Every structure is written in C-alpha cells, then in structure tokens.
UniProtKB/TrEMBL annotation:
Pfam families: DENN (PF02141)
Keywords: Guanine-nucleotide releasing factor
Name of the protein in its database record: Protein DENND6B
Residues that span the membrane, as ranges: none
UDENN domain span: 1-385
GO molecular function terms listed in the Swiss-Prot or TrEMBL record: guanyl-nucleotide exchange factor activity
A single cellular component GO annotation: recycling endosome
Family assignment from sequence similarity: Belongs to the DENND6 family.
Superkingdom per UniProt: Eukaryota
C-alpha cells in the first residue's frame, strides 16, 4: 500500500500537438518553450536584489564573472549572465551557459540577440524525444524523459551532493518528507544550490510542496521574516554561504554545515549529528546539527517503498457507477482515521525490514504541506481519470437512440454539455485517446443535424 508511489510522473511539458500549434501562432513561442528570458545582472552594493514579481518561482542558471576594477567600491566589477526557465534541466542550461557566456562578455548584446534567435528555432520540448539543439555552431543533443519514466527531476548527481552527509540520508529524508525547516550552510552557491535541489528531490516521486531557496542571501525579500525569533521558523529549506547566517540561524531546529568538497575518489569523512548549542562560531565544523529523533530505525539498505496505493484506489467510484446520462460520481474524501486503521492489517511494518514508529511517521506526515500537495495531485489525477472514463462511456452509448423521445431543449442542452466536455478535455490535456474525441465531435455534429435548421444555425454560430 504505497501512499507515496505515483505511476505517472509530474509533467513539465505541453502535449506535442498543442506545443506545435502554439509555436506556429505566437512570436517567440519556441523560445518561450525553453526559456522565459535571459538576464544580465550587474551587482549593485547599494540596491541589492530587485523585488520578486510574484510568488511563483522559476529556475535560474547563472554564469558569474568577477574582474578587478579599482573604480568600484569593492575593487571588483561583478556581472552575471542568467537563464530563466520553468524547466529544471540543470545539465542542459549549464552547458548552454558555458557556450554563450564567454562570447557574451566579449561581444555583448549582439551575441545574446543571435543566441535568442537560434533558441527560437529549437523544436518544442517534447517528452520522450532526443532533440538536436543548434547554438553558436554547436549542436547540443538532449534526451527529454518520456512521460512514463520517473527521472531524477533535478538531473543532479545525488551521490556527489550527499557525500558528506550520506550516513544521515534517512533522517534527512524524514525531515524533507515532513516539511521541516532546514538551513544548509555551504562553501559556495553551487554547492548550496545543488544540495537544496538534491534534498527536495529525495522524496520523489512525491512532490516537495514547501518553499525552498537554493541560494538565500541577506537581500532576499523574506530575510526579515526568516531571521526573526518572535515566531517558529517556517516550513522552508534555505541554502546559504554567508558566515553571517551561522549566528542568525543558530536557533533553527535543523542545520546542515557542509565543508569544502575534495576532488578525490575516496568517500569523504562522514559528519556526525551534533547538538545545536555547538553551532556558534565562524569556524564551526561540518555536520548535521539537530535534536530530531527519527520515527524509523536506521536501515543501511534504505527501503525504496513505504506503502502501496490500495487505500487511495478504494476512494474511486466503481466503473458501473459511471453512466453517460449523468455527471461522473464524486471521489470519496480521504479519511485519515480510516487509512490508519488499514495500517494494522496491511501496513509496511508487516513486510518491510525497516522497523520503527510507522504510525507516528504517518500521523506527522498527514500534517505536512507535502501530504497536502501529494493528495491534491493524486485527487486531480483521479478526477481526470473519471472524466476520461466518462468520455469513453458517452462515446460507447447510443446517443441517437436516446434523443429520439427528447425535446429540443433537452437535445440542445446535451449538445452544450458535450461541447463543454470537449473543451475541458483539450484545455486540461486529459489523457484520452484522440479517436474518442473525434467520435464525440462526430456525435455532436450528427445530433445538431437532427434539429430544425434555425437551431442548427444558432448552434453552429456558438
């Protein structure tokens, strides 16, 4: 009974058909399929960061350059080239930056304009395809994961990211699962960002639904909120490099201090769990500082599954309850008490080698944002499945026989409802077969043709 298992991965892509249609209609549509924009950021000591436009987040891929300049207050001129995208393709965009950034700093804006025009000629990012992406005389070959594959979302080398804290991976998994507040203190923005992204993807295929900042600075708009001591730390994971934060965040419940990574083939010395009271000075040693006691006993083999999804499947209406003449039945609401009772006779403690307080872990998990996000996503998937099933049953029904003894008002109402279902199927990109939609369109046209001509004209106009 795997509450955390998902048979369908999250999708970052549009369907192939919709992507190609959009690309033909809108200027810069292909560019927008890959990137939101390209930014040139000059460091301003007085201004700091600009205010975020909204609460949504993007992925930023940065190439940083620092050049000596005696005319600047700090003695260095600092500028970054940033790619902004909704897609978490770390390797692709970092490789792209390595190509275009050196040229940009030499040739400036004309170089960026040429690159953006090249990206605007790229094919849309279609899952399951290997794409050849030409830029600046080089062709980048990129394989996008297929819809039915569960890839590592952030494309990171998780082993490398977790090397210094590998022995604590199970405890960190619990902390991330429960949405606990965590600060990662790292030696560089790269290590900070990669560690945060590795942590958020550690509970995959469950989506991490709390807030996280791979690289948090004193200029962030939430700085005052996160550093106040008048309230408990929020459910957020922060990555920092500034030694200032060692004292500022010492009251946070979970702190990971990562030292400089050595480029050797040996596994680095594993850091121990330490008391938070020892986190006081700038020369604080690497380690995991927390008083957290895990719900589950440590297991070196790290079980990959917790429960199978038997309980959630039981919330779905029976197929025989789905009939063509009525709206699809409602999904039964999730009951924590009912679910907890199922653990007694079919829970993971019966088969898993991982022992511990499973009931306590689930009780705590139900109160976390990750459960809420997971349940919303699964409820959406079940609702879509019901909609698809309803469409198929409608297409299998004899609609022409049904309308024989119906009034014109009832027939028009049927046409409008069928059209609404078609629009919803296209708008929500429901995973329904194309032939089902085509058959439904044919049904609509046939039903309209059975009506008087004046009604046909009205329905064809709207």
């Amino acid at each position: 009974m795997d509450l955390f298992e998902s048979n369908e991965p999250r999708s970052y892509f549009k369907s192939e058909r919709n992507s190609e249609v959009s690309a033909r209609r809108l200027p810069w549509a292909r560019f927008s399929s890959w990137l939101e924009c390209v930014c040139v950021v000059t460091f301003d000591l007085e201004l700091g960061q600009a205010i975020e436009r909204d609460t949504a987040h993007y992925y930023g891929y940065v190439y940083f350059r620092q050049v000596k300049d005696v005319s600047v207050k700090r003695g260095y001129f600092q500028k970054s080239l940033v790619l902004i995208s909704r897609l978490p393709f770390v390797n692709l965009f970092q490789s792209l930056l390595q190509l275009i950034a050196p040229e940009y700093f030499e040739k400036l804006e004309p170089c960026l304009e040429a690159v953006c025009n090249e990206i605007d000629q790229w094919p849309a990012p279609i899952p399951g395809q290997t794409l050849n992406l030409p830029v600046m005389g080089v062709v980048i070959q990129n394989l996008l994961p297929a819809p039915m594959i569960l890839p590592t979302v952030h494309e990171l080398d998780l082993f490398k990211c977790f090397q210094p804290i590998l022995i604590h991976i199970q405890m960190l998994w619990e902390l991330m699962l429960l949405g606990e507040p965590i600060v990662v203190m790292a030696p560089s923005p790269t290590v900070s960002s990669e560690t945060i992204l590795a942590l958020t993807s550690s509970i995959s295929p469950l989506k991490y639904c709390c807030d996280y900042h791979p690289y948090f600075t004193i200029h962030n708009s939430e700085f005052k909120e996160y550093t106040t001591r008048t309230q408990a730390p929020p459910n957020v994971v922060l990555g920092v490099t500034n030694p200032f934060f060692i004292k500022t965040f010492q009251y946070w419940p979970h702190i990971i201090r990562i030292g400089d990574l050595k480029m050797s083939g040996d596994l680095p010395k594993q850091v121990k769990v330490k008391k938070l009271t020892k986190l006081k000075t700038l020369d604080t040693k690497p380690g995991v500082y927390t008083a957290y006691k895990t719900f589950l006993h440590k297991d070196k083999t790290l079980s990959k599954r917790l429960l199978k999804e038997r309980y959630l499947v039981s919330l779905m209406p029976l197929q025989r309850a789905v009939i063509p003449w009525k709206n699809p039945p409602q999904i039964r609401p999730f009951s924590q008490d009912e679910f907890m009772r199922t653990l007694e006779h079919s829970g993971p403690q019966l088969t898993s080698v991982l022992k511990g307080d499973w009931i306590g872990l689930y009780s705590r998990f139900f109160r976390s944002p990750n459960f809420d996000g997971w349940y919303r996503q699964r409820h959406k998937e079940m609702t879509q499945k019901l909609e698809c099933l309803h469409l198929e049953i409608i297409c299998e029904a004899d609609l022409l026989a049904w309308i024989k003894d119906k009034s014109e008002v009832e027939i028009v109402d049927l046409v409008l409802k069928l059209r609404e279902k078609l629009v919803k199927a296209h708008h929500q990109q429901l995973p329904v077969r194309e032939e089902v939609l085509q058959k439904l369109e044919l049904y609509i046209e046939t039903i309209i043709s059975s009506l008087p001509e004046d009604l046909q004209v009205v329905l064809h106009r709207h």
